[in-house]
Design a protein that fits this description.
single chain; globular; mainly alpha; 5% strand; two-stranded antiparallel ribbon; Glycosyltransferase
Length: 412
């Protein structure tokens, strides 16, 4: 297929501001605890590849699944490879994602009838592998994933359901899972310009339904039918501002803008929403540490804690927004402070040349039927009661990406 050109970062609405107000480039890359951001990205990437081994690769008797977290981690490896070429990053990614994909593009374990937006997230890595290798199976697999969106169930106003079994529900998580892949596929293969309109619509609908003016934050989920036990019967929103959910939304915004054409009217809408989100994000950055809390607006309420995945996601989104002139340069301070805090407080030296990212919320959701039998009611006690682990890929991947962007923001 012919590549479609002309997409990429070009934020006309604030380009002049960026030129006038951009900080002077430092003579040398800023270091954090003795290493540059790219070196930290390499350290955690190398450590995690060693820990994981071949466990993310498909084998008939194995436990590996077609999984959104593997998609996030492997995409971060390929992005790191662009800055610091290393064949190991590509090989690991090809084993982890490519092992699921047959010659005809069929994907082991992918069930389109479930209409899970989560299942589209590895599609971003599939697109990247196609660009890197031009193996036809990757193009075919991407097309299979893209086809899901043609019949994805929608709310009354056109928003994608998060999953088939989550009737009439939109989650912030789903925007990251689906929107950048949707836009990336259109930008890569062309012939699907209406997709950019739809991507913009999905993000704007989530903003319309879940944004809270009083805090400047976003609720985790929205039930269009207003019938879920976790939903406010008047608004349909869940009841708390879960950090990682807002982090997913932040990453969705900056990643979609990679692909939206410079002349598309949706760019101005998404940049405005990114700026609105950034204002809320920095408002709740902890002044003492520079980190963000598991439940963003609850500070040191008993049970709340500094959480790694949200902190890495926010640093990535803020730094990337600054780098591409979609956020004012003033946000560089919050991104830098946050990154330094992650390295200081959440990165642990294992003592054997390996490093760990600590304080990661393992998983959280709304409703459903979790394995532990506890209903996910979206309450404060629910979010702070979920397991906390080290090296969750939902934090490792964004940390690697954050290092790439902070390096660009603070260095040469």
């Amino acid at each position: 297929m012919k590549l479609k050109s002309g997409h990429g970062w070009f934020c006309l609405s604030i380009a002049l501001l960026g030129l006038l107000a951009a900080p002077l480039v430092a003579c040398a890359t800023e270091t954090f605890a003795g290493a540059t951001p790219l070196e930290w990205s390499q350290r955690l990437a190398d450590s995690e590849m060693t820990r994981r081994g071949d466990s993310l690769a498909y084998t008939p008797a194995g436990k590996a699944k077609w999984d959104y977290t593997a998609g996030l981690f492997t995409l971060s490896l390929l992005k790191l490879n662009e800055q610091k070429p290393d064949a190991r990053y590509v090989t690991f990614t090809q084993k982890a994602i490519g092992s699921f994909i047959a010659a005809d593009g069929s994907i082991q374990g992918y069930r389109p009838e479930e209409y899970q937006l989560d299942a589209l997230n590895p599609g971003k890595t599939v697109l990247a592998l196609w660009m890197l290798t031009h193996e036809e199976r990757y193009q075919k697999a991407a097309a299979i994933l893209r086809k899901q969106l043609d019949t994805q169930p929608r709310t009354f106003d056109g928003g994608f359901w998060h999953k088939q079994r989550y009737t009439n529900q939109m989650w912030l998580d789903g925007l990251y899972m689906g929107a950048p892949f949707y836009a990336g596929y259109a930008a890569t293969f062309g012939g699907d310009d209406p997709a950019f309109d739809d991507v913009t619509k999905q993000i704007c609908l989530m903003d319309k339904h879940t944004y809270d003016r009083a805090t400047g934050l976003y609720y985790h989920g929205w039930d269009a039918a207003k019938v879920q036990p976790w939903a406010n019967p008047a608004t349909g929103c869940s009841s708390n501002f879960w950090g990682r959910a807002v982090g997913w939304y932040a990453m969705a915004l900056v990643d979609v803008l990679d692909y939206l054409p410079a002349n598309h009217p949706g760019r101005a809408q998404l940049i405005e929403r990114l700026q609105k989100l950034a204002a809320g994000v920095v408002k709740y950055q902890d002044a003492r540490t520079g980190l963000w809390w598991q439940v963003l607006d609850q500070g040191d309420r008993p049970g709340n804690y500094y959480e790694a995945t949200v902190s890495t996601m926010f640093v990535y989104a803020l730094a990337k927004g600054v780098n591409h002139n979609c956020l004012p340069p003033s946000y560089a301070a919050a991104a830098t402070k946050g990154y330094a805090a992650i390295v200081k407080h959440l990165i642990h030296d294992e003592g054997d040349g390996h490093w760990s990212l600590t304080h990661c919320c393992q998983v959280a959701g709304l409703g459903g039927s979790p394995a532990n039998g506890k209903y996910r009611d979206g309450s404060f006690s629910y979010y702070v009661g979920e397991p906390v682990v080290n090296n969750d890929l939902k934090g490792v991947g964004p940390f690697i990406l954050a290092g790439i962007e902070v390096q660009a923001m603070t260095g040469q």
